[in-house]
Amino acid sequence: MLDTAPLTRAYIYLDRLTHNLRLLQELAGGRPLWPAIKANAYGHGMVFVARHLVALGYDTLCVAHVSEVEVLAEAGVDARFLLFSATLPEHSEAVVRLGCEPAVCTLEFAQALSRDAQRLGRTVAVHLMVDTGMGRIGIRPEDAPAFLERCAALPGMWVRGLMTHFPRADEADKTQSVQQIQDFRHCIEATARFGIEVRHMANSAAIFDLPDSHCDAVRPGISIYGLLPSPEIINPRVGELKPVLEWKTPISFLKEVPAGTGLSYGHTFHTARPSLIATVPVGYGDGLSRRLSNSFEMLVRGIRCPQVGRVTMDQSLIDVTALRGRVALGDEVVIIGRQGDAEVTADELAAKLGTISYEIVTAISERVPRVAIGGQA
What we know:
Layout: E1 9-13, H1 14-27, H2 38-43, H3 46-55, E2 60-63, H4 66-74, E3 80-83, H5 92-97, E4 101-104, H6 107-120, E5 124-129, H7 144-152, E6 157-163, H8 175-190, E7 198-202, H9 204-209, E8 217-218, E9 245-250, E10 253-257, E11 262-263, E12 269-270, E13 275-280, E14 297-300, E15 303-308, E16 316-319, E17 332-339, E18 342-344, H10 346-353, H11 357-362, E19 370-373
């Protein structure tokens, strides 16, 4: 059989995922963890991450869209799926058929769910999204009782959960987040008579820094993948997280060039000395941002080697002159991860782009195979 697998791959260390989950479970005081696996598990590979989570006993997984649930269901993942994003009425039949538990914040969607649930002979559980400060989706806390009254009159549907979300829990100043906790508690009290089963609001940052927000369940996202919610997390235990993803590629070509040689499109880089230049088969088509051109380093034999010239769609160049005589075709090159004593992190690349690690890992394209390493630890 011919080997046509891409040379550039993302390696997902499942033992590190297990480690991070155990840390978060401890911080949550034994409350249920509902891990977020939306956006292809933050770029880590949604299906096998989901399978690993289910094997570890996690029975509720959080996604953004019903299309993600469809993929997981077809892959045989047996779990309860909570939909985070606002969903339009035209998707209500799919939500009901797939047994999702959607966030609800419009009467139109609630009514559509009720109609489809009755028609299909099913009952759908939903979670009322309350906007305590995110400003994205959700109803105002003071409107929750009236909304729940309307929902109570809809057959085939029941409000299982009450939820909200933090916009600033990852900041050192917790003033607004503390106010959100208070506002959500007031909303819980005001809606107590509706028989809501579970209240939840804590994201990754709140699990570490805001234990008063843990409620009945917590919803970790970025932290299960071993990445920091932000550099401003107060709890020192955030340092125990282990990055789950490593992104690697091999050297596919080596060439000696004289001083003054222009490299890649636009010749934005010229060699200052006779140089040994390596080509690696990774580019912006794989999710390596073109805006990183000439500004970051990759690891070769444990040495930081500068990327030079513009990152192109499928290939990039690195200066390996420091390794002349010690480097060869096929040598491993680390884009994100550790090699020897050196490490390049998603946070490092994010800082160079003025963004966050979430964007770096979710941008890794689908043509990069995710390779699962290890299992339960």
